[in-house]
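Sanity check

After download, print the first record. It should look like this:
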Amino acid sequence: MKLYSTNNHELRTDFQTAVFNSMPLDKGLYMPDYIPELDQEFIDQIDKFSFSQIAYKVASVLMKDAIPLEDLQAIIDDAINFEAPLVELSEDTYVLELFHGPSLAFKDFGARFMSRVMGYFLKESEKMLDVLVATSGDTGGAVALGFLNVPNTRVTILYPKGKVSEIQELQLCTNGGNIHAIEVDGTFDDCQALVKQAFADEELNQRLRLTSANSINIARLIPQTFYYFNAYAQLKRRGKTDVVFAVPSGNFGNIGAGLLAYKMGLPVKQFIAATNANDTVPRFFSTGIYEARPSVQTYANAMDVGAPSNWVRIMNLFSSNEAELKTVVSAAAYTDDQTLKAMKDIYQQYDYIACPHTAIAWLALREYQSANPGDYAGIFLSTAHACKFPDVFPEEMKGKIEIPDQVAALSKKEKLATRMDASFESFKKYLTSY
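Expected structure tokens:
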């Protein structure tokens, strides 16, 4: 498997190098230089395969000889050892639950796969690997649990002060060991900028072996394709094949993975990028002008991203052809008030409790279905367990939320975090003082 930089298509590297470098030195993102299509027979028979079998097929075709097939199967079996069920709410509306992993968020798929891949390659190296990650909510907890006690790794997680939920903060700040948390006085965009500056700093890269666990890392993106194919398989078992996906979108890695699956042959009628007030992409679809803005805080905090890194990957998938892109992708943005109302509406209509991110995806799907009637199934992605956002639910709904055992245990743990301003000088000093 060879990959190129989105800033230089002539630059080529192998999968192992891309995983550990995370970002090319030219500050682009790695993309596969060739996207293979799955054979039609597999797509036609996909409902006959298990989730693990689907994941292995997709990974082996996309990654080719990057990892021996037997080892790849073992990595998948260890990393993706939980389900992603498709729940029917009505005849044409389904929710894909992606929160059944250890951190109760969809990012477990990418974080666990990536940590196992890095651990596999690290067997040949004795140098400590420093994993840097910025989080707006769920990434931190998934990465912390994915890398906890992985030999030869040290994980540094940056999160914006006061802008993640209490449970999200506890998930990334109570692990200890090789997991370090930094509470940044700023926004997620500030945290993400610090990580990118670290990768571009020559002195840091000479002293430390840096990599990222954000969705900028190609090893995060690949496993997220698995659940799109698996959702289609579950839908096909119900006798349906025409599908629209509504995807909560922050850094646009989730929908980017869906579009990668589409390019590999997954039959999808439409993708809808559903955002909150951080509406950079919806504005681009409306005006044709891509203008990143500072992020603003919302109830759907994991989507509070003003400058989505993965957008460049999506444009590369479509060769920067906006007309072609817009035939497959649409976008919509919603306010906090609309989000809260949607959470109540979903509960009243379906007796289903959805987190703010999930509610935004449902809003986008409902709007699309209203404007585009037809015989197809609408799937909206549920990216996090509702228990992670207790403060946004009215008492009636809050009392119905089931609290998993691992969440109840978090409150008994000590918070371990370093407070820091948003300057790169402070961050660099921290990294070099380990």
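If your output differs, re-run the checksum step. Summary of this record's structure: The first helix runs from residue 15 to 21.
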